[in-house]
Specification:
341 residues; 6-stranded parallel beta sheet; 3-stranded parallel beta sheet; ACMSD; Amidohydro-rel; Metal_Hydrolase
Amino acid sequence: MIIDCHGHYTTAPPALKAWRTQQIDGLTDPARTPSRTDLRIGDDELRRSVEPNQLRLMDERGIDLTVYSPRASFMAHHIGDLHTSSEWAALCNELCFRVSELYPERFAPAAMLPQSPGVDPVTCVPELVRCVEEYGAVAVNLNPDPSGGHWTAPPLTDRSWYPIYEKLVEYDVPAMVHVSTSVNPAFHTTGAHYLNADTTVFMQLVQGDLFADFPTLRLIIPHGGGAVPYHWGRFRGLAMALGRPPLEEHVLGNVFFDTCVYHQPGIDLLFDVIPTRNILFASEMIGAVRDIDPRTGRHFDDTRRYAEAAGLPADELTGVFERNARTVYPRLDALLTKQGR
């Protein structure tokens, strides 16, 4: 199989965005605040939103299944308060679940959390529980910067995050560390903020001892790990200067990277630097980079081609495409096994 561990519902029906606009308007005019029941999206609308988009591209590129979560840039945890985020997360998570119910062999649901700046992360636990127990979510997205580019939250190694980790460990569910929209004009959302966050979180993990407290916690750092593989020597040296164990012992038992790197030299570098057991196939289609690369004639996010051209031994490539995801996402493995795959 080929499992894409990083997909977002970027093509949701327009009614979802219209509901969100009303919700935001309601922050200044409460009379305009919609209820959850005001959002009406039928199954046929869901089918029309994915069949000519994600499903078509998955078929064209030979991707069997995608781990499917709400659109990352739409999480926008900086908007409103905890109630705002809770209502929004509940709706977005429900839609991803419904898509997975319509196409159970093509999509597995992952959930966003109702994070809000300055709010105790423990408030996210009920939605995490609901999505795992009711929707069968195989993962969650964890935003290390709910402020939207101002970085007001403590590092992910801070104990305030521990209630989320405790529940993830209990359910044996991994978290993909994924920020949302940047409202800081210094940081472009997908070109800077996303990659900055990937790099920043890795360094937080190097500095801390999170996995001493949670030895079975698994975190996926997307977009190829940001700058991490490219500056692996710097991180190794910093770990030494900080008195930390070698990175292979300190973080690579718990931290994984995906293949959302959109050119061949970048994928080659990722595979050369990071052990392939720590790399999971992903494309993040249809996402931040949607155009065709004029140098190759292929879409930038057609990452399967880069992975296959990297020259990995067959067993390692199988690990990247399937085995590693089934290991890091045990509930996904259980789902696939139940389906006879």
